[in-house]
Amino acid sequence: MATQRILDFLATRRPEGPCLVVDLDVVRENYLAFEKALPDSRIFYAVKANPAPEILRLLASLGSCFDTASVAEIEMSLEAGATPDRISYGNTIKKERDIARAFELGIRLFAVDCVEEVEKIARAAPGSKVFCRVLTDGAGAEWPLSRKFGCVPTMAVDVLRQAKALGLAPYGVSFHVGSQQTDLSAWDRALKDARFVFQALAEKGISLRMVNMGGGFPTRYLRDVPTAQAYGQAIFEALKRHFGNRLPETIIEPGRGMVGNAGVIKSEVVLISKKSEDDDVRWVYLDIGKFGGLAETMDEAIRYPVATPRDGDETAPCVLAGPTCDSADVLYEKTPYPLPVSLTIGDEVLIEGTGAYTTTYASVAFNGFAPLKAYVI
């Protein structure tokens, strides 16, 4: 839902064209909820979700750490007030010169998922701490992550042994249960794998200290999702089940769960049409689409709530599409979207829950459309 602060901003400022408005009060509430739900875990905000300087500065002031995927994100986090010890270089795919630059900036915590990456870090960031990402199945996630990142637990053991042999500090393991994860038991399955790696390395004289439990914490779109407190309880119980009284240090990396529900995109209906006289499904074209920031509608994985000025009127199914001349720029067609029959050209609509993974997914100027404007209030 759009907060009153967002509605007031749109009513008074009347920004031209599609734009994202993010309410920092909601981001603050989300951070405090994660802190309360998992008081013993360090929070590393996933910068990629929304790197707006205002968001980074707020989170840095609240004590957040930062999960970064590039040197640029490391520099943004430092600029926002984070110290190097509060930054993780969490991408498992890094150029050696970028590792060297991160090391130069003071970063000492790096993600790996293969021996080849360990070798790069040993050369460019000697003595650093590394954690190995373990593959998970992602069942229960609306946006499951692929096999692009991570390795099987038995390989993670070999990767961390090699890190030790090359003078690095084997620090722990990480996993990601899939984005928009609504299955509370997903962390239990992943923590079982983490425990296997801990135990296998302990038998070889290597003591790991940390489990990075990744992101996956959802934001509410069209369906209710469990609270941060529910996730915290489920995760804590799974940690106790697999690690007993010897709990490791833990990290979480919320991105969507931190900023998703803090943002709303204002859009305008450009055209409403049908493909034939007897077609019972209207096509509703907005001034924003996949290339304007709504890339996560790919395969209709994320279904955003859409609020219109005519809500409450009779609805009928629509195909929802963007304005560009690319035939892939269709948001919802497999499962048509119910919108008011009275909706008309020129109506402004609000696309809710769009605080994460929108501005940075927007194209620079496809078809000459400007990148998605953003306001942080």
Automatic annotation (TrEMBL):
Its EC number is 4.1.1.17. Keywords: Lyase, Pyridoxal phosphate. The active site is at 325 (proton donor). One of its GO terms (molecular function) is ornithine decarboxylase activity. Residues 26-259 form the Orn/DAP/Arg decarboxylase 2 N-terminal domain. InterPro entries: Ala_racemase/Decarboxylase_C (IPR009006), De-COase2_CS (IPR022657), De-COase2_N (IPR022644), De-COase2_pyr-phos_BS (IPR022653), Orn/DAP/Arg_de-COase (IPR000183), Orn_de-COase (IPR002433), PLP-binding_barrel (IPR029066). The gene is odc2. It is an enzyme of class 4 (lyase). This is ornithine decarboxylase. Pathway: Amine and polyamine biosynthesis; putrescine biosynthesis via L-ornithine pathway; putrescine from L-ornithine: step 1/1. It comes from Chelativorans petroleitrophicus. It catalyses: L-ornithine + H(+) = putrescine + CO2. The keyword Protein biosynthesis does not apply. PROSITE patterns: ODR_DC_2_1, ODR_DC_2_2. Pfam families: Orn_Arg_deC_N (PF02784). Belongs to the Orn/Lys/Arg decarboxylase class-II family.
